[in-house]
Design a protein that fits this description.
By secondary structure, this protein is mainly alpha-helical. Helix content is about 45%, strand content about 5%. The chain has 3 helices and 2 strands; from the N terminus they run E-H-H-E-H. It starts with a strand and ends in a 9-residue tail after the last helix.
Length: about 70
C-alpha cells in the first residue's frame, strides 16, 4: 500500500518562489490551493498508471480535490 499525506501541507511556503509562480502561470493555477489540488491529482494519476499498489489517503481531505476511482 502507498499512503499519500497532504493533510498538513503549509501552502504559504509556495508563495515566494519564482519557479512555482512560473509553473502556476503556465498551468493557469490561480491559488496555492489550486496548485496543491493539481499536484495531488497528477501524483495520484501517475501512481495509478504505474503500480498495482492500493492508494491510501484521508477521504475527507482529498475527496473534494481529486477524481479518484471509487472502488
Amino acid at each position: 500500500k502507498i499512503h499519500f499525506g497532504g493533510d498538513e501541507v503549509i501552502l504559504s511556503c509556495w508563495k515566494n518562489n519564482a519557479q512555482i509562480d512560473e509553473y502556476m502561470q503556465k498551468n493557469n493555477l490561480k491559488t496555492t490551493q489550486e496548485l496543491f489540488n493539481h499536484f495531488i491529482q497528477k501524483a495520484y494519476t501517475t501512481v495509478w498508471k504505474i503500480t498495482d499498489k492500493t492508494l491510501m489517503y484521508w477521504v475527507d481531505e482529498f475527496s473534494t480535490y481529486i477524481d479518484y476511482p471509487k472502488d
